Amino acid sequence: MHSNYSYVSGPSSKPLLGESIGQNLKRTVDQFPQRVALVSVQQKVRLTYQELWDKTTMVAKALLSKGLTTGDRLGVWSANRYEWVVLQYATSRIGVILVNLNPAYRKKELLYTINQSEIKFLVSALKFKTSDYQQMVLKIKTKAPSLKETVFFDFDWESFVNENQHTSDQDLAMVESKIQFDDPINLQYTSGTTGFPKGVTLSHHNILNNGYFIGERLHYTEQDVVCIPVPFFHCFGMVIGNIAVTSHGATIVIPSESFDASMTLQAVEQEKCTSLYGVPTMFIAALQLPNFESFDLTSLRTGVMAGSICPVEIMKQVQSKMYMKEISICYGMTETSPVSTQTTIGVSLEKQVNTVGTVQDHLELKIIDPNTGQIVPRGVAGELCTRGYSVMLRYWGQPEATAAVIDEARWMHTGDLAVMDVDDFITITGRIKDIIIRGGENISPKEIEEFLYAHENVQDVQVIGVPDPKYGEAIMAWVIPMSNSNLSETELMQFCKDQIAHYKVPKYWKFVDSFPMTLSGKVRKIELKQMAIEELNL
Hints:
By secondary structure, the protein is of the alpha/beta class.
């Protein structure tokens, strides 16, 4: 029996893991030394668990030889590659805090992050897409007093790794023995909608347990082979991805440096992957491939879709054409390590597409009235709050910003609007900041997007609010039409007629081939808004 209030706590038949990430990896290595831990398809690298462990040992010793110690910050600036994973586990073994740098950063953001977290040591790719990382690091060096040394993967990684002879096994063991699972181990900068990004500070306990319990819901065992085309610099790649995999003795497959639909499906076929991750746009891109039918995806069983709500049609195709009957939807935020809710295997299609599942094991959720702080009844929308082991330690060096989101009772206020139903399922209805207010009417962009998705010629759609002299805000829809369709504004206006309330029908329409995206696969709505304001002279 539950009360009528929107509160729920996640039960679990398994206890939380009271160990560090390094200790957890060692347990897996001892259990499955010869199983394949990591495959980087593009780099032609395959490592067993024993080989992965040995590499993390060399890197951990090399870092200690360089004078790094528990609590120091090390930045990693690169797209996905096997060395990223080695670094993730090597730093966690010696308590060096890994700072994930977004591959899309420009000089200003790079400098801000290095200085804000006082990064001492930087490991970087030489370049990514149009960015020349080497040049950028050179230009900011003089303004980054904490930065002592930079190692480039393609240039001096090997010689750096071989500098481990100054550290003995005893030295390493000594450092490892002092690691506590509540120590901070990872800093992830979240793109705040306003001002500079904030460094979400996560502990071993935060991300190890989150990864482990996500893997539990996906029924992972050492037999699973998990294809991870989502970026490691983001929680999706390094926690839902790497940690969920290694805590179960399964295999990490890196299909390519950054997302490529064709290379992803190729990797699934080649490595006989049982699980595939992505944001909805990635699954859409894969399904749209002209040669989609030529890939053998029958090995797939499960996977994770997260980042934004999945359109019904796409979910149906992922379950049938991609064989991912047991796909799971995850919801969360970096500040909660990241996953707070997840669908369990076997839930109905309706729950898979209309909700983000139920509370994760060992966590608590409540939904409150944002104005009064009171818990709302079930079925009523309010702000979703999360409490438990997954809530971040703090924003790095920003006590005021931390206090603004974590209250005295340790509830993390997510800023997301949600509804809890009688069966404990959570539906995200929008962001407190995302709501369009038109003439006093609160409008959820998500609701209009879901409606427009149903049109057979709409491949993808994003709805935003733009300034309007009469109503305060007007609605604008950015639409990617299906290829070979002659979709028009008139056709969509007709489609909306009498189907959704008049005030929800977009005033402006724009047809495009793609949306500006963050590297973690989220659409940059803020950019859409700026572009719209300029183009429409608002």
